[in-house]
Amino acid sequence: MAVASEEAIKQFSVLMEQLEEPLKTTFQNVHQGNLRGTLVRFLKAREWSVPKAHKMLLDCLNWRIQNGIDSVLAKPIVPSDLYRAICDTLLVGLTGYSKQGQPVYAFGVGLSTFDKASVNYYVQSHIQMNEYRDRVVLPAASKKFGRQINTCLKVMDMTGLKLSALSQIKMLTMITTVDDLNYPEKTETYYIVNAPYVFSACWKVVKPLLQERTKKKIQVLYGSGRDELLKVMDYESLPHFCKREGSGSSSDSLDGVDCYSYDHPFHQQLYNYMKQQSLKLDSVGPIKQGSLHVDVPSPGLEEVKIAETIESELHKLRGGNGLMHSFNRIKIEGP
């Protein structure tokens, strides 16, 4: 690594040694023993500016404290039927590992509807997925492959993406903002597959707005992307929608259970882990129902510009009739 980068890491490390409680404890939950890797992530996210990376990390730590993120894995969404409904409409699953050991996550972007619960539940579920990845999945992958693994791969399925996607922009912007500001540089590569025309049209106008660092992470593959993905992962780790050309309707290879399903081992393990953590946190009384209200940081100028550009492009494609009404209906509401 360049001398300048090493100096930046050293300066950043000295600043973080000055933390006091409760920031010190929540920082330990963030770096999980990999202090250097965490500092590098935040430095990369701020183009190696130590002051900017320091501010970003302090903002992240304060956000965690203010919103109880350290204990979010002890707050399972109940009843389990509600969690099942969220799994059915926020399509995310862990399908395996790359040849280099990174966990492979599948995202059904085009078919996610976000219509079975309040916005708070979806944000809570997404943050729980992030925390489980950082505290359980990545450490387990590091142990399994005998080396430090800090990032994952994401395969984004655009099957079913329609012009009505405008109604999901606000939700997706919220989730993206949470990730960008509090979980930076956790994804090495985003693979876009099964992209319909509406995605291609939006991608054409959004791509120039992205930072070079972000552009390099995104690969738009032809069709299901199977052949390209097999260069970085084995067939068993392919998401079900990549195992054949065409739409993503076939089942995952694991016992015929769709990787998004509540019945898939990944979601079962995650949910059981959260239930166990909740018992450790509070052994008195049943788990309370109710979503975790997390303050979503304001999106940066880049995210705002991207959302506005996508909105504008979708208006053009559809003629702009009646779309703002559906967009404005998506608000942050309680359960």
TrEMBL record:
InterPro entries: CRAL-TRIO_dom, CRAL-TRIO_dom_sf, CRAL/TRIO_N_dom, CRAL/TRIO_N_dom_sf
Classification via PANTHER family: CRAL-TRIO DOMAIN-CONTAINING PROTEIN (PTHR46226), OS09G0258000 PROTEIN (PTHR46226:SF13)
CDD domains hit by this protein: SEC14 (cd00170)
UniProt domain CRAL-TRIO: residue ranges: 79-239
Organism for this UniProt entry: Panicum virgatum (Blackwell switchgrass)
SUPFAM superfamilies (UniProt xref): CRAL/TRIO domain, CRAL/TRIO N-terminal domain
UniProt superkingdom: Eukaryota
Protein name as annotated: CRAL-TRIO domain-containing protein
One Pfam family, short name: CRAL_TRIO_N
